[in-house]
Specification:
There is one protein chain. By secondary structure, this protein is of the alpha/beta class. It has a single domain, classed as Hypothetical Protein Ychn, Chain: A, CATH 3.40.1260.10. It contains four helices and five strands. It has a five-stranded parallel β-sheet with strand order 4-3-2-1-5. The longest helix has 14 residues. The two termini are about 20 Å apart.
């Protein structure tokens, strides 16, 4: 990404393990609503938010699938994860939503340097 005000939000937590995934998505939506270019990178357990077959929310927690489904309405179209994350969780590309891009772990440092701001959740 070449834009100087670009934001990368890194999600590392599973949808229902805590509120961190939800907070990361909310931060991305707020930034995008104000016109900031936003991409999302899902690492570790966070990649489970990208699964096509999302379950229902845990008791007392809001489901994340509706939020994931509306990302494109906010021009958040670049969703990323690493190939190594998929291997570690015994997942394949076909388990994920269609709009997810794969990046190799060795390319992540250069990838992250291309963003002016990074938020971790």
């Amino acid at each position: 990404m070449e834009e100087s005000n670009s934001l990368l939000v890194i999600i590392r937590h599973a949808p229902y393990s805590s509120n961190l995934l939800r907070e990361g998505l909310d931060a991305a939506l707020v930034a995008a609503a104000f016109g900031q270019p936003v991409d999302l990178l899902f690492l570790g357990q966070g990649v489970t938010a990208l699964l096509k077959e999302q379950g229902i929310a845990a008791p007392g927690m809001k489901a994340t699938r509706p939020t994931m489904d509306m990302l494109e309405m906010y021009d958040i179209e670049q969703l990323w994860t690493s190939e190594e994350t998929l291997v570690a969780l015994n997942l394949t590309r076909s388990d994920l939503r269609d709009n997810v891009q794969l990046i190799e772990a060795h390319a992540l440092p250069a990838f992250m340097k291309s963003y002016s701001q990074i938020l971790n959740f």
